[in-house]
Each structure stands twice: as structure tokens, then as C-alpha cells.
Amino acid sequence: MENALTKKMRADLLMGEFRHGQWLRLHELEARYEVSRFEVRKALAALAAIGALEHVENYGYRLSPADPEKDANHREARLVLELGAAPKVYYRATIDDLRRLHDLAERFNRAIDTASLAEAQSANDDFHRAFFALCGNPVLANMIDEMRELVRPYSRHPYASDEHRRTSAAEHVEMLDCIERKNLPGLLDVMRRHLYRTALLAPAAPGDAHP
User: Fold this and answer.
1) What is the pLDDT of residues 25-43, one digit of tens each?
2) What does the chain look like in DSSP terms, one character per residue?
3) Which domains are delineated in the chain?
């Protein structure tokens, strides 16, 4: 379970607050987040464990250098896993399941206006985690969750804009509407857009590219 500092740092990584290849200095992070060195080390280790950072022995922690091919492969792997799980969710979701997912979707929608980016990201994660948990295969659901934890920093990431967050919130509802209307092809289409829209809209940083 992520603590508050780890969640905040992960959200900042996702928002592009740090650069590809940047070394993260302990004293700078202590000042930035107003926490102890112990808390910073614990958060850095947690982020490295999920692949958000690299730990280089005797040097410290840094963001991975830009690797467009790796990013493209990561998104493709996520797409294969998520589209593979989607029909299982589609056929297994009950009325009560959909009601609970609508509640989580609405929580994310409210967080856009009332919460921090870190809290909005957490609400978004909760929706997707609950959605894929319904596939009935905990191994598959866990793999998808782990893939979602792998964040890559993007310059001026569109998630930082109200427009992007509201579009994401609308797509959550659209996904559930497709299940309720028994529209599996529509569900798969929304999920493709949901994953790849970020890559298509994000302005490429120097030396970076998005498919």
C-alpha cells in the first residue's frame, strides 16, 4: 500500500515534474515535500520497486532516460492485457458491481475539482483496479495493476489539464454504459482510446516520441 508521500511523488512523476534521466537528490526532496530523509528514502525505494525509478548502487535514484521504444512496448503490453480482461469483466459484472464502479467513477469526477492531483490519480487508480478485479482472474488483474503502476514522465503531461481529466472521467462512464447496453465492441473501443489518447496528445519532450 502506497503511503501519502509515495502517492504524491508518483503523481508528480506522472505530471512531468521531473525530467527523463534526472537524479533525485535527497536534500532537495526533503525540502520539496517537507518530510524527513527516512521518509524520502522509503518513498524512493517503493517507487523503484514498481519501476517508476532506477536505483543505481552507490549513486542513488534517477528517472530512466527517455526510451520511446520501451514506452511503446509498455503501452502495447498494457493494451493486450486490458483488452484480454475486458470481455471477462463484461460478462461477469453484476448490477451491484456496476453500481459500485459508477460510484468510483463519480469519486474521480469530483476529485477533478476538489482534490489534489495525487488524490485524483488515486481515485483514478481505484476505479481501474476495481474494474479489472471483476475479470475473475486475480493473476491477470494483478498484472494489469502492476503495469499501470509503471509511470513515465512526460513534459506538460495532458493529465495535468482539466480537459484531459474530464475526458478520462467521461470515458469511465462510457465504459460502464457499454457494459450496461451489452456493447462489447464499444467497450473495447473506449478502452483503446482511453489508453492511447495520452500518448497521442502528450507533447514530445526533446529526444522523446510517442506512438
Assistant:
1) 999 999 999 999 999 999 9
2) ---HHHHHHHHHHHTT-S-TT-EE-HHHHHHHHT--HHHHHHHHHHHHHTTSSEEETTTEEEPPPP-HHHHHHHHHHHHHHHHHHHHHHHHH--HHHHHHHHHHHHHHHHHHHHS-HHHHHHHHHHHHHHHHHTTS-HHHHHHHHHHHH-----TT-GGGSHHHHHHHHHHHHHHHHHHHTT-HHHHHHHHHHHHHHHHHHSPPPTT----
3) 4-62 (1.10.10.10), 68-201 (1.20.120.530)
